[in-house]
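Exercise 7 asks you to align residues with tokens for two separate proteins.
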Amino acid sequence: MNSDDSTAYAQHPPPLPKPRPRLLLVDDQHINIQELYEIFRQEHEVYIATSGMQALELCLSNPPDLILLDIIMPGMNGLEVCRRLKSEKRTQDIPIIFVTAQDNPEDETRGLDAGAVDFISKPFNHAVVRARIQTHLTLKAQSDLLRSMAFIDGLTGVANRRHFNECLDTEWRHCRRLKIPLALFLIDIDHFKKYNDNYGHQDGDACLREVASILKEQLRRPHDLAARYGGEEFACLLPGIVGEGALHKAQTMLQAIRDRHIPHASSETAPFVTISLGMAVIIPGPDQQPDQLVALADARLYQAKQQGRDRVCGDGTPG
């Protein structure tokens, strides 16, 4: 590569490769799995499960884009796997295609009633299988795009309050089932009304976008969520994080906002933008509700403001 090429590369780097769709193959017969694997391995990330229970565990830990599911399996059959996936918020939108050696209209009816989108018959016609998979992946991508647009805050680009509420309910039930902690940060930009009064609402909007971007940068795990909670308030949801990890993450967010040094001449706390953060961690119990987590984080946010702002209140100990 010559110097001109290097300059052009630096100014116009090649686009990042598009992630390959993730397919989950579920079948207790290895010969069927091997055939499907050979069809899709070149263009897809292919995961394999040989039982219904293994398929459920994989879907909850790393949801695929599409599932090819055998109907007849020992233990938990494909119909039951499908019903369970469709009853779980995290997995209900994953398209499921049943793979069957039987040509029985009653089976198709039961499969569609359970939530499947299509059927593929054995033995496989490779061209037909590829075409059907591509069709359903395209439909899912379009649905995901429309869904994400409904869940994004138009000003800041992070999740909106509606999406936060849905995720809180989903993660609460998930953490309760696994008996793991769920952390919530409620975050307020200190003296934001004075910021708007001093710099104007356009700069105020730019400040909100900047803070939202910084908070989102700190959340790197797939199920962590940053959302605009309302006005100048944000919420971050972190499932499965241990107490010390939650406290460290909260302090990292606080420092990241400080380090950006967004000017705030009218602040009574610092000459730049700061945040107050209330943190709560709960291992959800059978008699508890998500509102208790929100109320605890909100009380600690109030405490942070009362103690002088620009600080974290809450020690990360599960309540």
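Second protein for Exercise 7:
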Amino acid sequence: MYRLLQLLHSYRAFLLLLFIEIVCVWLLVGNNPYHSAAYFRTSNAIIGNIYRTKHNISQYFTLPRVNEELANDNARLREIISQTQVPIIVNSEEDSLRLSKSVHDYDFLSAKVINNSTRFTHNYLTINKGRANGVETGMGVISADGIVGKVMSVSENFATVSSLLNIDVYVSTYLKRNNTFSSLHWDGRDMLQTKLMYVPRHIQLQKGDTIVTSGYNSIFPENILVGFIGEFSLAENDSFYDIDVQLSNDFSKLAYVYVIKNPLKEERINLESEIQLDHE
């Protein structure tokens, strides 16, 4: 013990310098958007390769569950095709699922989840597709069971996705039964449950009501499943309900997701920006 203390004392200047540099880097990345973005781009490439190796090792032991998920996914797609008669086009050059542009504005790129967090207030997942596959910051991400989140940072071959289990994420939604618009926000507590906000008191609710995306932004298509109303209450003087939503996705079991590409996104954003400028 004495020798250890003596060694630390001998290197006290170096250790103090190292500690100060770590604090400076942490403050720089945490408070500067440019350096924060650069950090995420660099770390995505390095950490992505580590996660891919880790994933390849563990993937062997999860093959039965993954195969079952793929079979269920195919069954859902076949059911959708039979009900809507929308042609599905598979692009052999890219492992993407694409709906005909004549009836749909969005393309879907499949990706594997190679890392995922659910224990924090700001949770992220890493996927094995990046800039080389056409993934861009701000794209929406869904799974066979519903909405997942939004792409936060992209490197050449990987992307980091901010999931619904993130207290900074808000999603525009509506109640499918009565077309009431609302907003979804996670309160950082239960990974299977989130909050539905801004539903006025005059709306009639039922436990089990379906919540879907509204399509009010260019990130998510309309009618993507989000979850179902669980418990709800209304205080005497409140204007809005307090609503718990049971998420359709179990984020601890995500294996494959779809990144949503909207070819008309820029056109829509530019048009809406012109309208905003006209009213300033």
